[in-house]
Amino acid sequence: MNVFCHFNYRTGLLALVLFALVDGGHSVRAAAVDHSHHQHTTSDPAAPCTAQGELPDLRCAKSVTAALDGEGGLWVAWVSGGHIYLQSSPKAGSELSRAVVVNRQPERISAGNEHRPKIAFGRDGRIYIAWTEKLAKRFSGHIRFAWSDDRGASFSTPLTVNDHLEVTSHRFESMVVDARGHIHLTWLDKRDRLAAEIRGEEYRGAALYHAVSTDNGVSFSVNKKLADNSCECCRIAMAIDPQSGLPLVVWRHIYGDNIRDHGLVRLNENGEWGEQQRLSYSQWQTSSCPHHGPSLAASSEAYHAVWFANGAEQSGLFYSRVDRNSLRRLDERPVGSAVSLSSHPSVVTMGERVYIAWLSYDGKESHVLIQASPDGGESWQAPATLASHAGGTDYPFLLSDGERLYLSWHRAGEPYQLVRVTK
User: Fold this and answer.
1) How far apart are CA 364 and CA 222, in angstroms?
2) Residues 21, 384 contacting (CB under 8 angstroms)
3) In the structure, what pLDDT confidence band is assigned to residue 53 with cuts at 50, 70 and 90?
4) What are phi and psi of 322, to 5 degrees?
C-alpha cells in the first residue's frame, strides 16, 4: 500500500499521512492539498493561534465546515472572534481565497463539533450561511441566517429564523436547498419545554422545528413543529430526495422510557410532512446528552443513514438502508469496530455507490477509515485507513461533487486539508 505526504514549504508544516483506498477493486490514490491561506511564516503551528494582533487564521478554528458547489468550487466556513469567515477555491485542490466576513457585527457563535455554521447554495451563484448565536443563558440560542448574491463577496444583514424569541434553546440547525431553490432549516427547539415548565408539566428533551424560505433567504415561514421529544444535543442530518427534489430529516429522538434512537421524516410532494418513522432500535436508555448525531444520504431507490449507539441491542456504529418508496428498513449492519472506539460517521452517495467514513482511535492516534458499497448498500468492501493523526482533530466529513469524492478533516493548529479520495 502506497503512502503519500504533502509538505507546506511556506509554513514548514507536514500534512496528513495518507494511504491508498481500494475502490471497486482498484487502488485509488488519495492526494492531500494544503488549502490554508496563511498570513504567517512561522514554523510553529501554534504561533498564529496565540500571537497578539494577528489576523484570524483558519488553522486556529476549532471546527471547520466545508462544502462543494455545483461548479466544482470549494467553500470553507469557520469562526473566530465572534465572526464567521468564508473562504473559497474555484476548483477543489487550488489555494483558498482571502477570508470574507459573513456577519459584520460580532456575535457569540456556537462553533463546536456537533454545532457549527452550515453552507448551502442556491441558484445564480447564491450562497447561504446558517449558524447558532449563543445567548446569555447557558444552552440557549437563536438560529441565524445570511445570504450572498455576489458569489460570497458580501453578505446580507443576518436575520433570526426562529419566530419564538424567548431566551431558551433554538440550536443545532441543519440546512438544505431543494430542487425548487427553497431553503429548508431544521433545528432543536425548547420553546415547548419552556411552556411546559411554566405549566408545571414534564417535557422530555426538545422538539424538532422547521422553517422554509421561498424568496432566496429574504424571509422565512412561520416555524412548524415536526416532532416533540427530540434529543436536545445531537446534530440533525438532512438530505434531498433525488426523485422528488424535497428534503428528508433524520435526528436522535426520545422513545419510551428515555431511549435515544433515531427518527426519520420527509416532506411529501403535496407540501406536507409525512409521519415520523422510527429508524433505529438500539434501546439506548440514557438521560445524558450523547452529543453524537447521525449522517444521511439519499440515492434514487434508498435512503442511507449511519449513527452511533450504546444501547442494550446495539453498541458502536451502525448503517441502515431504507426503501425510498415504502420507508421500510431493508437492512442494518455494524460499521467499524467497537474495540477501536469508532465514532462520528459521515455518509455520501454517488449514483448507486455509497461511502461511509468514520473516526477511530487506537489509544495513540486518530484514524479516518472509509468503506465503499458499489451497489447501493447491498454489499460492502473491506474498510481502508484513509488518514491518521496523533494530535487533536475535528470530525471527518465526506464531500462529493457527483463525480469525485473528498474527505474534509481539520486538525486545529495545522493547515486545513481536503483529501481527494477517488479519481
Assistant:
1) 49
2) yes
3) low
4) -120, 130
Provide the residue count of the chain: 423
Cell 438560529 locates to 143
CA atoms within a 13 Å half-sphere pointing along the CA-CB vector of 348 = 21
> Which cell numbers hold the place of 349?
452517495
With 0.85 as the threshold, say if the pTM is over it.
Answer: yes
Distance CA 94, CA 337 (A): 35
Segment 140-198, tens digit of pLDDT: 999 999 999 999 999 999 999 999 999 999 999 999 999 999 999 999 999 999 999 99
Residue carrying C-alpha cell 507546506: 8
**Phi, psi at residue 195, to the nearest 5°?**
-65, -40
305's CB contacts (< 8 A; 6+ apart) are 237, 250, 262, 264, 279, 294, 295, 296, 319, 320, 322, 347
Nearest to 157 by CA among 170, 165, 147: 147
- From the list 273, 256, 257, the residue with the least C-alpha distance to 265 is 273
What's the start-to-end Cα distance of the chain, in Å?
A: 17
Kindly calculate the radius of gyration of the chain based on its CA atoms and give it in whole angstroms: 21
Amino acid letter at 91? Answer: K
Check whether domain 102-230 has CATH 3.40.50.10860, yes or no: no
DSSP per-residue string spanning 220-237: -PPPEEEEEEE-SSS--E
Task: For residue 44, name the pLDDT band (cuts at 50, 70, 90).
Answer: very low
User: Average pLDDT, whole number, for the chain?
Assistant: 87
Which residue reads 485509488 in cell numbers? 28
Buried b / exposed e over 258-286, threshold 16 CB at 10 Å, is ebbbbbbbbbeeeeebeebbebbbbbbee
The 8-class DSSP code of residue 59 comes to: G
pLDDT at residue 407 in the model: 97
